[in-house]
Write a structure and sequence with these properties.
Elements (H helix, E strand, L loop, with lengths): L6 H17 L5 H7 L6 H13 L3 E2 L8 E2 L1 H11 L4 H14 L7 H16 L2 E5 L8 E8 L4 E8 L4 E7 L10 H19 L4 H5 L14 H13 L4 H4 E4 L1 H4 L8 H13 L1 H8 L13 E4 L11 E10 L2 E11 L4 H19 L1
Antiparallel strand pairs: 1-2, 3-7, 3-10, 4-5, 5-6, 8-9, 9-10
Helix pairs in contact: 1-3, 1-4, 2-3, 5-6, 5-14, 6-14, 12-13
Amino acid sequence: MQVQLNARQQHILWATVRHYIATAEPVGSKALVEEYNLGVSSATIRNTMGVLEKVGLLYQPHISAGRVPSDSGYRIYVDQLISPSEILAKQVEQVFHERLKWEDWSIEALLQGAAQILATVSGCITLITMPQTTTTQLRHLQLVQLETGKAMLIVVTDSYETHSAVMELPAPQDAPLDAEAVERELQILSNFLNTHLRGRSLSEIANLNWNQLDREFQRYGDVLKSFLGELSRRKLPAGTQIMIRGVSEVLRQPEFAELQQVQTIIHLLEEEQHQLWPLIFEEREGEYGKHRVSVRIGSENPLQPIRMCTLISSTYRRGEVPVGSVGVLGPTRMDYETAIAVVEAAADYLSEALS
């Protein structure tokens, strides 16, 4: 919605949103006169608030009540009237550096620690996705013999996640090998593949020119290519895709007073995480102006359970490649300056750690 506001209207909208965020109470002109130096009379403020209501930026929950920001009012507030706190962002990054030892921790432990810090600082539900499989790197590969003609391929990624699959071994070109000979060959092949593949991304491995590998192991190429290609496309189990912290804190907000609202949000977080994934791991370049984040306010969220919430997210990267997302979910009446700043700071820290 394109709404052109003059300076006075912008200032009064800014003050109204700020006051409502702080108090959770509908805002009247008297409160703005007392709390903010707007330089105009109470009557002028009332008239301006009436204009803002007519264009859909404020509304009255009851006839005798003050005004409350609409989703459109929050959108203008976020896009035009505020900037994230640079001081707070630096403070949050410092907390990450002091409390998280990314040099010694696994990726999962690092993300769990970051999620807890972000939930504490923002007062919102924190959502952090695990790195995407397509950019995850291979750390170790091992082939283990099972019954005759079968082996298990075990892959460990750089985030210390383990994937495995049983595969049919190709028949030898000459005489059949005994079990010990197969075991030795599988160990040699494992060592050979680790030497050539360690540190490569799974998507890169799936698209390798396998003809360049040693002819001694060429008959394994098609089987391995098929499995690793499937692995590069495989999504992590829904329960491990998104780390969630801070639910108990945010549900104490007055917006979540109704039990049914709480139940629908918790069900989404616990049972339907696959619906959240595309919302928080999605880059939409240029749409959010001066902020390096995605800000979905209220009705802008396509999922019904969070239509009363705001979802703020940003991607974290390995080098130039986005691999995951960090975000906060809270009521539309949230401290946007703080939330945007801490999400940006968390994304920057995780990008630094992974790179």
